[in-house]
Amino acid sequence: MPDLSAPWRGVHVATALPFHDDDELSVDYEGYAVHVRFLAEHGCDGVCPNGSLGEYQTLTDEERARVVRVAVEAAPEGFGVMPGVAAYGALESRRWAEQAGEAGARAVLALPPNSYRADREAVVGHYREVARAGLPVVAYNNPHDTKVDLTPELLAELHGEGLIVAVKEFSGDVRRAYEIAERAPGLDLLIGADDVLLELGLAGAVGWIAGYPNAIPDATVELYRLATSGVGADLEKALPLYRALHPLLRWDSRTEFVQAIKASMDLAGLRGGACRPPRSRLAGEVAARVVRETETVLALGYR
What we know:
Elements: E1 10-14, H1 29-41, E2 46-48, H2 61-74, E3 80-81, H3 90-103, E4 108-110, H4 120-131, E5 137-141, H5 143-146, H6 152-160, E6 166-169, H7 176-183, E7 188-191, H8 197-202, E8 207-210, H9 217-227, H10 235-249, H11 257-267, H12 284-299
Parallel strand pairs: 1-2, 1-8, 2-3, 4-5, 5-6, 6-7, 7-8
Helix pairs in contact: 1-2, 2-3, 3-4, 6-7, 9-10, 10-12, 11-12
């Protein structure tokens, strides 16, 4: 069971969003609700709607708000919903955090300003604004896409002011886990990229905002539990599983991660489907690799 006093902990799936096969690629809300319930039934602790995997940048305001409401309504008791509230400006991010709270979410996931190379003062101001919504805020450090790096020093400042409770660490630099723990010992570390799950799990992560559980929840949740057992990770079991899954987990850190995960979902008999433009279906060798690597994992019995 998830820790209800810290609802950002555990395995929260950055959910892919299904679309109908029509001219507008309209959102399949019923299909999304089915997927949320499926993830709950297969051991996940919560979902993060409206992240990049949910293609939030392509949604209208009405669609984006409804996705959060659908996730909350579909979630069984004790299953967390932590929406992404990324936006161009701090005021808009705060409004999305307020909408999440009104819908029944208990925490939010917030990027720094993501279309503006913000300095320290702007980043702190951004999180002050989001925190005004009154929900616990998980910072999302993705310097590759935002061009803003939430360094351990800056995270410690944000946490010290009471603006954030955790960080989704997606820099790829696993060494940061130890400096974050030193500078901000009360700040929860969440695994932000699937292909550093074991490394950050061993370094003390207490949660994972995850991509590939969309397609293979049983195996990935088992891997997370083995790597973050709290009484000493079971490396004898975790390492061979991690090696077997790692070719797939790497896609979470690549440009094509949304298409790759949706393609893996389709191969696993789930509802992945098409992406909205500008993302298009994978083709050529990239598509062949995703198919090959997914089929290898499925043939090993991992689901």
